[in-house]
């Protein structure tokens, strides 16, 4: 009997029973509050991965150390010379430069523009990418000229037992 | 019809704080302040039970009939 008033009485031009009353309370106050609480849950869940990666960084898991790799003997690298090597995998070409008696720097030498190999020009004391003449500062890896905008990823080196070892790759700065 | 909009307002405020905290989490992560990132992520997660609590308390307030209260 409760549905009595919701029926179309006869098949004629329907001017009086044309309002559909189903779902008329779809967006009431309670439903709206339920949506808001659900949205709060979505936000809570969406921050979980950020918290997880932040915790991972805090615990130092992101700073991965690779097996130490010998680059060269000290006596083979004179001041101002450079040595090519591969670190951490054999597909990541890298370059070691001896800037002074006790200062060694190493970078992954794929240019940050289009990944051409960057090489060390001793006469100009600069790292130069031959493809588009990008230049990098040897002591920091920062780009100084040409198209590249980001620094070369540095490699930490360690001198031990008259030899130079590659230890880990520094964080890539975007 | 009598209505209580307190719950709606509180929940809207909570959602606003959620948006702000999420934004801060992302920014502080890229600024490499990981401790602060964790703090804001924790606050953001804590807001969800608070929102549920407010919803449960407020959902039956302000009905049009007296016995609904």
Question: Main traits of this protein?
Answer:
heterodimer, A: 174 residues, alpha+beta, Rieske Iron-sulfur Protein, 2 domains, six-stranded antiparallel β-sheet, four-stranded antiparallel β-sheet, 10 strands, B: 69 residues, mainly alpha, elongated
TL;DR?
Chain A has 174 residues and is α+β, with helices and mostly antiparallel strands.
Please give a structural write-up.
The complex is a heterodimer of chains A (174) and B (69). Chain A has 174 residues and is an alpha+beta fold. Chain A has 2 domains: 4-58, no CATH class; 69-169, Rieske [2Fe-2S] iron-sulphur domain (Rieske Iron-sulfur Protein, 3-layer Sandwich), CATH 2.102.10.10. In chain A, 17% of the residues lie in helices and 28% in strands. Chain A is built from 1 helix and 10 strands; from the N terminus they run H-E-E-E-E-E-E-E-E-E-E. Chain A has one helix at residues 29-58; strands at residues 69-73, 82-86, 93-98, 104-108, 119-121, 126-129, 134-136, 143-145, 154-160, 163-169. In chain A, the strands form 2 sheets. A 6-stranded antiparallel beta sheet of chain A has the order 1-10-9-4-3-2, with no helix packed on it. The termini of chain A are far apart. The mean pLDDT of chain A is 84. Chain B is an all-alpha fold and 69 residues long. Chain B has one domain. Chain B has helices at 6-30, 34-58. In chain B, helix 1 packs antiparallel against helix 2. The chains are: A alpha+beta (174), B mainly alpha (69). The interface between A and B is medium-sized, with 22 and 35 residues.
């Amino acid at each position: 009997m409760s549905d009595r008033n919701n029926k179309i009485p006869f098949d004629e031009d329907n001017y009086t029973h044309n309002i559909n009353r189903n779902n008329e309370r779809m967006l009431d106050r309670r439903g709206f509050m339920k949506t808001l609480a659900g949205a709060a849950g979505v936000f809570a869940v969406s921050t979980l991965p950020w918290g997880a990666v932040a915790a991972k960084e805090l615990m130092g898991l992101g700073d991965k150390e690779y097996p130490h790799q010998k680059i060269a003997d000290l006596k083979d690298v004179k001041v101002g010379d450079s040595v090519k090597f591969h670190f951490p995998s054999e597909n990541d070409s890298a370059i070691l430069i001896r800037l002074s008696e006790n200062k060694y720097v190493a970078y992954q030498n794929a240019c940050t523009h289009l990944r051409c190999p960057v090489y060390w020009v001793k006469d100009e004391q600069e790292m130069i990418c031959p493809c588009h003449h990008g230049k990098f500062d040897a002591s920091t890896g920062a780009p100084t000229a040409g198209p590249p905008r980001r620094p070369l990823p540095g490699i930490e080196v360690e001198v031990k037992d008259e030899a130079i070892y590659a230890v880990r790759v520094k964080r890539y700065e975007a | 019809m009598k209505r209580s909009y307190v719950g709606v307002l509180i929940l809207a405020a909570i959602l606003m704080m959620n948006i702000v905290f999420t934004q801060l989490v992302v920014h502080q992560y890229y600024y490499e302040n990981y401790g602060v990132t964790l703090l804001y992520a924790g606050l953001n997660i804590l807001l969800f039970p608070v929102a549920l609590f407010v919803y449960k308390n407020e959902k039956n307030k302000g009905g049009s009939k007296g016995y609904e209260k």
